[in-house]
Amino acid sequence: MKKSPEELIGEIVYLTKHHDLWRKYECINLIASENVMSPVAERLYLNDMMHRYAEGLPFKRYYQGHKYLDEVEVRAQKIISVLFDADHVDLRPLSGTIANLAVFVAFLENGDKVAALDVPAGAHVSHTIHGALGLRGVEVLQLPFDRERMNIDEDKAVKIIEKEQPKMVILGASLFLFPHPIKEISDAAKSYGGLVVYDAAHVLGLIAGGQFQQPFREGASIVTSSTHKTFPGPQGGVVMAAENVEFERVQKAIFPRLVCNHHIHRLPALAQTAWEMWKYGEAYARQTIKNAKKLAERLAEFGFRVLGEPYGYTESHQVVIDVREYGGGKINAEKLEENNIIANKNMIPGDETNAETMKNPSGIRIGTQEMTRWGCKESDMEVIAEFIHRVIVKDENVRDDVVEFRKSFREVHYC
């Protein structure tokens, strides 16, 4: 018998309530691409702007009724500009992928060469022919990757760039343990007029806190990002650029080609988060990285193969473990979820790019940014590492222990 709309909406309300309780107060969230907003940002997120349209740029709209929201958007742009040392800022992309696509649409044409990492080496899918980049009909050159260092091999990369002269080089990654060699690659690309784009989606909050690398100062021309990973804002995207970039091309790619209404209700919350990162970002970013290092060290002590070991495991929020000997990423991510520990399966260097491997890759990717936001320190990472060991290696049920652990971490910090 079919359920009525009244029954269905009742179930949806119930499921939404229990999702909030489960994820916020009963789980250890280690997804490297997620975070939580502050209570103030959450309150600012819920505003009348969610009902409104704002096609075009501030003060140049195609609708009326923007005398307040235009001022909000301009001020949000200014805060982001100061925080990241950017000359141009556009907050209209709805995601990091849309931000990337806007740059690809603005500057690439069919047949152009682009240099980027492949997925097992850490690239986001939007950097590949299988994602947004593939929509432009370009030739993709793979940047060489040093598996031991878990980073781009800058010497080999520079040689490829000098020889092939790609129109665009994409740096930044989805699996991202160490800062990329922006300066070396930028010097090579700019020698013939190439464009260096840095996807900061995963590390934007670390950059805001001055604890990772500074893309513009090191030579990137454009920085794209989402706004909800280490940067703990509302879901959305941003494109930033240096002064010499033809930014009008990006703006025209965003509207009217890719985005009409850009969900302007998120901008007050985004501005609030940027202010929090301006005031507290250094302490937050430093603790996030300390937590990642401690978690990696403790997992290694438990016998896990933690990537990046010869170089200190990580300089970011991420820790990556090779779990092939325990059955692969899929089964272990599922086992962790059953125990209220949320992490994701992930391809790692050496994995083949095929359907079978993508379903069950070799790795588990872990991020410490959200649990840092909830107040965790290094000693708490040791507890979390033990939970992971008990689940994956000992096949124990630690769900009740996780719920009890989370009772001590229910207030958002660094805000």
Account of the 3D structure:
There is one protein chain. Helix 2 (39-45) packs antiparallel against helix 10 (266-301), helix 3 (69-84) runs parallel beside helix 10 and helix 5 (154-164) runs parallel beside helix 6 (182-190). The protein has 2 domains: 41-273, Aspartate Aminotransferase, domain 2 (3-Layer(aba) Sandwich); 281-406, Aspartate Aminotransferase, domain 1 (Alpha-Beta Complex), CATH 3.90.1150. It has helices spanning 5-25, 39-45, 69-84, 96-107, 154-164, 182-190, 204-208, 215-218, 247-258, 266-301, 329-338, 355-359, 369-373, 378-392, 399-406; strands at 28-29, 56-57, 60-61, 88-90, 113-116, 139-142, 145-146, 151-152, 168-171, 195-199, 222-226, 237-241, 305-306, 318-322, 341-342, 344-346, 363-367. It is 42% helix and 14% strand. The longest helix is centred in the C-terminal third of the chain and has 36 residues, at 266-301. By secondary structure, it is of the alpha/beta class. The protein contains 15 helices and 17 strands. Strands 4-12-11-10-9-5-6 form a 7-stranded mixed β-sheet, with helices on both faces. Strands 13-14-17-16 form a 4-stranded antiparallel β-sheet.
* Count of separate structural domains: 2
**End-to-end separation:** 49 Å
Q: For this structure, what is the CATH homologous superfamily of the largest domain?
A: Type I PLP-dependent aspartate aminotransferase-like (Major domain)
CATH topology of the largest domain: Aspartate Aminotransferase, domain 2
The amount of beta strand, in percent, is: 5-15%
Helix content: 40-55%
Number of helices: 15
Rg, rounded, reads: 21 Å
Structural class: alpha/beta
